[in-house]
Amino acid sequence: MAQPVDCLPRPVRAGGATRVDHERPDPVKWRARLKATPTGRYWLRIAVALLGFGLIIAAGLTGWLPGPGGIPLFLTGLAVLSSEFLWAKSVNRWLMRYVRIYVCWNTNTKRLFWASIFVMVVAIWWISLVIAGIPGWLPQWASALLDQLPGVD
């Protein structure tokens, strides 16, 4: 049975996203100066959006690399976006809630979770082979192995 969600300390709520009403002063001086004028706030938000979405796009492009791939880039891009946009801050909170739930799971539950993910990926892979067939660019030995799978032509 999974432990309660509150088995880890909750992060401190910090107001960094831009709000028009009841805004907290920004502790970073250059950012506070930019936010003091409407033009500066506009260009800061544009720069933050470009940087954040650039990191998220880079995460998709580097996701195939060995290791963590694009996961750190995606999370960094989301963190950059959540510094100025409330919707990104709520997505970040939602993701972190499920990360806390996962961390609280015991080892057997984590193993069952990853085993079910593996089974689903293999099932999707097999279904795609049944529907689309064996790719022509595969080497002959790989095609011969895949041809032995049931339903694959």
Sum up the structure in keywords.
153 residues; mainly alpha; 2 domains; 6 helices; 63% helix
Describe the structure.
The protein has about 150 residues and is mostly helical. It has 2 domains: about 1-105, no CATH class; about 105-153, no CATH class. The protein contains 6 helices and no strands. The radius of gyration is 23 Å and the shape is elongated. The relative contact order is 0.11.
- Give start-end ranges of low-pLDDT stretches: none
Query: Structural class per helix/strand content?
Result: mainly alpha
What is the subunit arrangement here?
Answer: single chain
Mean pLDDT: 83
Distance between the termini: 43 Å
Query: How many β-strands, per DSSP?
Result: 0
Per the principal axes of the C-alpha atoms, what is the gross shape? elongated
Describe, in short, the structure shown.
It is built from 6 helices and no strands.
List the helices and strands and how they pair.
Layout: H1 29-35, H2 38-62, H3 71-82, H4 86-104, H5 107-132, H6 140-147
